[in-house]
Each structure stands twice: as C-alpha cells, then as structure tokens.
Amino acid sequence: MDWTHRLRLRHLQILVSLAETQNISHSAERLHMTQPALSKWLKELEADIGLTLFERHARGLRPTAHGQILREFAVHIGNELDRAREEMSALRDGGSGRAVIGASGATIAGVVPQAVLSLLTRMPNASVELVEAPMDRLFQQLTQREIDIAVGRPAAKYHDPGIASEVLYEERLHFAVRPDHPLAQRKALQWSHLMAQRWVVWTRDIPARDLLESALSAAGRSIPSASVQSNSLLATIALVAESDMVAVVSERAIELPERWKMLKRLPLLLETPSAMTMYWRKDALGFAAVDGLLDALRKVARQPPRTSRAKSRP
Predict the structure, then answer these.
(1) What is the share, in percent, of the chain residues with pLDDT greater than 70?
(2) What is the pLDDT of residues 113-140, one digit of tens each?
(3) Domain 97-170+275-312 belongs to what topology?
(4) Mean pLDDT across the chain, nearest whole number?
(5) Are 261 and 179 in contact (CB under 8 A)?
(6) DSSP strands (E only) in the chain
(7) What band does 72 get if pLDDT is binned at 50, 70 and 90?
(8) CA torsion, ordered 128, 129, 133, 136, to nearest 10 deg
(9) How would you label 84-119 residue by residue, b for 16+ Cβ within 10 Å and e otherwise?
C-alpha cells in the first residue's frame, strides 16, 4: 500500500513537532505519546518511504534534506486545513469568508487599512486578518500559504509560479519631523540642516533602505553615521515625535501621523519614485473575501494621496 494512504493529520503534526524540537522525548511529551511509540512510528515511516528523514545523534535528531521537504509539505497541508476550518467557520456564522493580508511598513498605515475598511463596507461579515512584516518575510509567508495577499515594494527576487503580482501605485520618500521641530519652521531648508540631525532610517532588510541610499548617493550625500535603524513604522513615529530626529517615510505612510499632527513632512524631496505592488496566491482567487480585498486595494490605489487631494481643492 502507498505509504501516503496511511498518513493522518496526527502524523503530519508529529513530523512538524520532530523537526521543531529535534528531540524524541520532547516531542513525545508535547504530543502526549510515549517515547518508544514515537520512535517506532518514525522508524516504520522511514522504512515505508525508503528514505532517512532524521539523522540520529547524541543530542537528538536533525532533519535530513528528505525530512525537511516532507516537513514543508506537512506544514502546507496543516495551513490549508486551518484555512478550510476558518473559512467554513466564517461562512457558518453568516460571514463572507476570510482573507489574510500582509503589509509592509510602507503600506500598514495607508493603503492597506483603507482597503480593509472599504471591503468591510461592502462585505460587513467578512473576516480579515492583517499582518505587518518586512516584505521578505511577507513573500515567504505567501509561498508557505500562511497569507493570501502581500503589499509592499517589489524586488526581482520575489518570484514564484504560484504567486501573481500587480503594481498598485508609485510614490516618493519624504523627510518628516515633529510639527514643532526647528526645521519645520525654516522657509529655506538646506541639506546641511538635515545632515546636522540624527536620522531614523530603515534596517538593511527593508527594500526602501536601498532606495534611500541610491537617492542620497545621486545627491552626493549619505546616511548620517549616528542614525538609528528601525523596521517598525510605529517605532519610527514614536522616536521622531518625541525628539529632534528626522525620519524618512513613504508618501502614503506619512498621511495618518500627519493628520494626527504627530509628524510634518519637510519640503526637501528625494528623487525616489518607487512602485508599491500587491502579490497574491493564485489559488486564493475565488474566495469572496480575497477577491473583494484585491478589488478594494485597486480602488484605493487609484485615489491620489490625501495631501495631493487637499492641495487640489479650491
């Protein structure tokens, strides 16, 4: 008999646990099994497959390349079953299904929450989960089927046959300070004024960091050596709102803290047009909440930034 016919959800949970703990006794305790029973089950599975899944050593186990591949399949299957349970639960409770969307720091305070609100206006019973993370992590979560949609800056490395993408809009980076910052009162702001301040900049794993460094290089400048690095928009806002630090923030990400009078953008612009892109799992299409959220993102992205709209009013 094909060994896959004997696998059950419980067995997949055992595989994932063994890969995580790399220890028979720890997994046995976690799964409420005896150690001999777990060892026997693993030995029989390896014999059925004809491959060694874990290397045994004095301190425990280590997944082989074969074991790691099977573990990834087990995680994917578990995620899909979780999604099926949550989708059915939402529908049973009178909802319109469920969507999980990931947002980078550049979109977490702007286009993504606006799209979620737009979706909930049209589908008030939809269930939405919003996750914030750097784009590298979000794309990984997409490929591992942990989220349905990710929105952030694109990169050539973000490629997978199961993932589709679409450019939503382009925007620039802005310098921002607290509203009563001395630089906010200057009518003629110079580079020398900015370079004399401590900056808050993105960590190197954020795509916008490369964008910022390229723009500064083109202007014959570089990031001040005493800068603070942050991959959190909330932390950046908190640092700048309570000090004389200068932040570099994307155009739409600054809208909300600016309306709340926590930050004020400075007139010196960086030549940094950058695309914001949404990525989605192709197999997630057809779920009402996912389809609705993709449409809402397109609709919100077509609207100009709020500051641009305000300037265009008579």
Answers:
(1) 94
(2) 999 999 999 988 888 999 999 899 999 9
(3) D-Maltodextrin-Binding Protein; domain 2 (3.40.190)
(4) 88
(5) yes
(6) 54-57, 60-63, 98-103, 127-132, 149-152, 163-171, 173-177, 199-202, 228-230, 246-250, 264-269, 274-281
(7) confident
(8) -70
(9) eebbeebeeeebbbbbbbbbbbbbbbbbbbbbbebb
The tokens 């409770």 sit on which residue? 93
Which tokens sit at 313?
Answer: 């009013």
CB-neighbour burial class of residue 65 (10 A; exposed 0-12, middle 13-18, buried 19+): exposed
Per-residue pLDDT at 311 exceeds 50: no
Among the listed residues 17, 59, 78, 65, the one whose alpha carbon sits nearest the alpha carbon of residue 42: 17
Q: Which amino acid is it at 235?
A: A
Long-range CB contacts for residues 307-310, cutoff 8 Å, separation at least 24: 307/251, 307/255, 307/258, 307/265
Q: Specify the pairing of strand 228-230 against strand 199-202.
A: parallel
Class of 173-272 in CATH: alpha beta
Asked: is 3-74 a CATH 2.60.40.1180 domain? The reply is no
Give the residue from 44, 51, 54, 57 showing the smallest Cα distance to 7: 44
Interatomic CA distance for residues 151 and 274, integer angstroms: 13
